[in-house]
């Protein structure tokens, strides 16, 4: 990593002067010894703010009430939002309903007429034709995926598939809470009767008689609003209209090579005509519950989103659903969750539920607002299978598409559904609704995947990446954080690799950490709060300007590279967390200007220098470089300014 850093020529002369600090760990530098030079201007204002316009199509959040289970037999694209939101399945499959609507009628005996069968190449095992295959390549791959998954299934995967099938979904997904799982289940008063896999499960169907979501507010004063919200999120959320409309059979009805988990054979429906595979009801309910829990406990946002997709994959491993069934269920769930959170009628309830969730879980875990987030991530993979961020990220991406190739344009512009921004409301409380829409826009997956290019944009939303902040800065990105509000308002981290030509401006009093391999070119301006770099390229390829009241922290494993200018004014602080291996060091390729302010040096990761050492901390050249104050934890220090940057000479405190 060190070898990849740019090494800059440092030829401009600067003053070489020293000022011995008067007290242990700090002191003042005589400003009269500093040369004067013109202070560079802040990075240029791009002159516009990025946005994500609402698509000009009927919005699911406005029409969710049309998705009624009782109307399932008569649902159409025109009358039912739940059917319409997954309509891109019609690129692959034409259901019988549409053929009948087109004038081809099935006789009373149920045998489909030969004229329609002439273009139909796929017949389920039971011989009942339910539609016409339009894209055999994709649909054959869809079933073959299940064949491969179920024939290679491990016993551990089979067991997980059984539990996720037979347990209530609201109970199952709560283990995505990791260290908070037991506290959540206790507070919600959740129970399950499926605590093991019975020996006779292969012949006897067991159903969960426990409490799926929990006990509501009428009998649960401390957590009941949380349960009420989860129950409310099921409004207008039935998958039956879509199942009845699309009539796409489950995978084991397409191929005898699909091996249904033997313990789930008793769960197979005896009425295939009303047991559609597309879309997956289990995945739709699980993802809806998981995303609602992520909304309530955004400290576990990505882990809960991951758990929702994991349950979907377990439906494939069970042999009960295909990848396209699960993709459709996930897409539908995001739309339903957003619609119910977006509904003004639920505004008071969702606010009360958020407050209760944090209050009850903090009390149960002995934490407070400042320690809760750390506790939520305190477990290792031995007890929290979602503890590894990198694994979650790669698995989430894989489960978004299940390996399907792109069958249409890969360059269609991103589309953000109306109301989708509410899904990030608690994750980014310091951003505006418009900014949260841009976060969704800049983190979407590419276009072209089967089913996922719906007109509104639900299919392309990547909620894991969205929870890591912007994917690109286009235009002005102004972030204002208020540390007094706690939580993410006080401190947050954006881990995406941020591209674009826009400019970031941080205001307020919070701390924002940039952790990606960033390449944005518009520069960074700190007008308040602290902008922290935890990767060598955190600040992209532009200037960094630290204005009055702002601060920058370099907490990197390798030297931080600023390819443009670095300017620091008086009344600001630069903190360098030096680890003795290059981490925490600052390298400036453009003009280095320091017109006062504080340099604070910390030694981290076990690095302990000794008195008498001289440590290089800043590489850069400029006509004016002088800190008003230099503090070094544990030492007295003498700053040394030279034509190649800034060093500190340590002496005993």
UniProtKB/TrEMBL annotation:
Q: Which UniProt keywords apply?
A: Signal
Protein origin, superkingdom:
Bacteria
Q: Which SMART domains match?
A: acidPPc
One family from Pfam that matches here is PATR
The signal peptide annotation in the UniProt record is: 1-22
Q: Which InterPro entries match?
A: Acid_Pase_classA_bac, Autotrns_rpt, PAP2/HPO, PAP2/HPO_sf
Q: Which residues form the Phosphatidic acid phosphatase type 2/haloperoxidase domain?
A: 223-341
Q: What is this protein called?
A: Phosphatase PAP2 family protein
Q: Which organism is it from?
A: Paraburkholderia translucens
